[in-house]
Amino acid sequence: MGDHQPTVYEWAGGEEAWHRLTEVFYKKVVEDDLLKPLFEHMQPDHPKHVAMMLGEVFGGPAVYTEEFGGYPRLVRRHRNRDIQPAQRARWVELMLESADETGLPQDAEFRAAFVSYIEFGSRRAMANSAPGAVPGERETLKLWGWGEARPGGE
Ligand code: HEM
């Protein structure tokens, strides 16, 4: 590994891997009875936007922030959707299933970092989606790294 510790984004396989993940994920989402109602009017570019946003969070290029509206857009998109706990849980379940199906790394360190952000982000999305919620004010996305378990650990 030399001196360079890969980002979680790189370790996953870079841009192509994140796009593969969200393509497969949203195919499942629109066929799921619990999630369908929330995503019926999803824009065709939605999977691409989420791939860019996740990539940026995990240390990839800041394309979502620089070209697509970044954190303020993310918050706007979840506002008043009134996401229910069972819907959040299913969203997480399908995301992890998609990570397996699209061949994202299986090592413990990668999965710990990935799952931890998916828990964090999905809970924030649910909280920000509650009618009348006042989301925290940030300029940029919250970035996520390896946490306690670094890649290639014993
Ligand atoms: C880590 C968790 C999550 C991430 C990273 C995420 C990411 C995003 C992003 C980036 C957008 C905006 C896309 C754009 O700019 O066009 C978005 C929109 C949206 N998200 Fe999430 N989200 C998360 C969790 C959830 C959950 C748990 C739900 C519901 C169960 C949800 C429902 C939606 C809906 C309904 C939209 C709007 C879709 C539309 O355009 O009609 N999100 N999400």
UniProtKB/TrEMBL annotation:
InterPro entries: Globin-like_sf (IPR009050), Globin/Proto (IPR012292), Hemoglobin_trunc (IPR001486). Signal peptide: none annotated. Gene3D superfamilies: Globins (1.10.490.10). It holds the Pfam family Bac_globin. Keywords: Heme, Iron, Metal-binding, Transport. This is Group II truncated hemoglobin. It comes from Amycolatopsis silviterrae.
